[in-house]
Amino acid sequence: MSEQQPGGVRGRAGDRSAADPGGEDAQQEPGFTTAKTRLTALGGRIARGALVGLVAGGAGLAVGQLLAVATGEASSPVVAAGDWAISITPTWLEQFAIRNFGSNDKTVLLTGVYVTVAVGAAALGVLARTRLTIASTVTAVFGVVGALAAVTRPSATMGWLVPSLLAGLAAALVLRQLTLLSLKESKPVSEPSDRRRFVLGTVGTAAGALVAGYGGRMWVKKRYDVSGARAKVVLPTPENALPEPPASAHPNVRGLDPFITPNSEFYRVDTALTLPRVDPGDWKLKIHGMVDRPFEITFDELLSYRFEEHDMTLTCVSNPVGGPYVGNARWLGTPLAPLLRRAGVRRGVDMILSTSADGMTIGSPVEAVLDGRQAMLAVAMNGEALPIRNGFPCRMLIPGLYGYVSATKWLTDLNLTTFASSDAYWTPRGYSPQAPVKTASRIDVPAKGAKVPAGAVVLAGTAWANHRGIAAVEVQIDNGPWREATLATADTPDTWRQWSYQWENASKGSHKVKVRATDGTGAVQTPDVQDVVPNGATGYHAITVQVS
Ligand SMILES: Nc1nc2c(c(=O)[nH]1)N[C@H]1C(S)=C(S)[C@@H](COP(=O)(O)O)O[C@H]1N2
Ligand SMILES: [Mo]
């Protein structure tokens, strides 16, 4: 190809070499010049190809984003690809992500998707300069792959095919057009107007993609926004007038989390890359499966039922020893047991397979709902309608069980079935089908790595054994004897219990402090170290305190 000739590149450097014939190129050996200009030419072609690829990819994503305004945020190519990636993420990688990125894992994943698309698009842009048909075809095929990823999401409709399919086509078209313009522009005989066309085409498409992509994002958020509907929910009055938790439920130690976790600080764990936005006006709950009288209720019907308030701690199975994925809130919900009785649960049924608006499935033991504990369909948390991130408009809660087997957010469906015949989402991924919360305790004060003055040091923390309650907490300093901590007032067996301990005469130096709890049945927390998978971490939380 002529563009590979050194002359071609000189010609492009054009103005300068013409005006300055004694420029640095002219003073160098011809062989070196050739190699250098060749390299420069190659670099230029790669850069242009990559640029064109990126602009084409961006244009495709923008088209996908705009179309997702019609089909929903989760159907946009990037979100669909991310959701698909989450669904195939092996458990070890998921654990790695939770451990290292915590609640930023979703940002990390989305960034990963963007980077992957960018690298692929740039590579296709470079390829397009020599293999245009192949590159545009592969681009369109990526759209098809994205569409398949989207349509196989559990909550997808056929419409979810559209954004990615058309995104791929748009990207392929842009790639083709801009590559042709670019090839023309880089020919030795190119006219200034060729260059103008290429620059305008590239810059114009990039600008259009940015506007459409950003606009589409804003538009889709606005169109599916339910914060207005959430603000309008009139919460039912609970039948039990529950007094505030006693002030003495908190040991009144500075730095210790409040007894009730504010909604803004409540942990969030789910697989939803974009929050499901469920309009209570459209919400329906179906109760069906192995029952005598399946039925469906609307949100207004739900609100007409009997509601109760209950304080309850929620814990994630993925919480490492000493970790943050636990919170305590006052929930307002309608008891779940009467709903199951109304449906008439058949003999042999032992599992409620609940499904959320985003297709999560959670399997819970029917027995835990019918044994008298306060299992509920909750609509409010700490006095306000459920925050969207915590499951608005309705979530399930069963005291005593980890969230992944009880706490379905954005709940839409209850299927009465059996553990033998049904798998919930996390079961084939290595987690136990049933998982009561294990007794755990945590040292929160002093904070990890903090320096404290010698003398009297206050230790404080939190312990939980959901639904069994906490009967004792002990601390151990430098492998000395276990000493009883002071327990704050218990609220309910379903809530965590905070504790404090006066450590007299802490001497200068580094000390190791450990904690362990005894649950309401008298069982002492196990020291055996076990990982999060398959049913919750165990072992004692220990910190090092620097006394100076
Ligand atoms: N729809 C849906 N519900 C879900 C999950 C999810 O991924 N999707 N995660 C569960 C898990 S693992 C936990 S620990 C709790 C966390 O609830 P929170 O985010 O309100 O703290 O929600 C549960 N409910
Ligand atoms: Mo969880």
TrEMBL record:
Q: What is this protein called?
A: Oxidoreductase
Q: Which GO terms describe its molecular function?
A: heme binding; molybdopterin cofactor binding; sulfite oxidase activity
| Record keyword Membrane present | yes
- Membrane-spanning intervals of the chain: 108-128, 134-151, 158-178, 198-220
The protein's matches in InterPro entries, at most eight in alphabetical order, are given as: Ig_E-set, OxRdtase_Mopterin-bd_dom, OxRdtase_Mopterin-bd_sf
Instruction: Write the record's keywords in alphabetical order, separated by commas.
Output: Membrane, Transmembrane, Transmembrane helix
From which source organism is this entry?
Streptomyces aurantiacus
Asked if the Swiss-Prot or TrEMBL record annotates the protein with the keyword RNA-binding, the reply is: no
GO biological process: any one? Answer: sulfur compound metabolic process
Q: Name one Pfam family in it.
A: Oxidored_molyb
Q: Where is this region: Disordered?
A: 1-33
Q: Which PANTHER family match?
A: SULFITE OXIDASE, MITOCHONDRIAL, SULFITE REDUCTASE
- Domain Oxidoreductase molybdopterin-binding, first and last residues per copy: 274-426
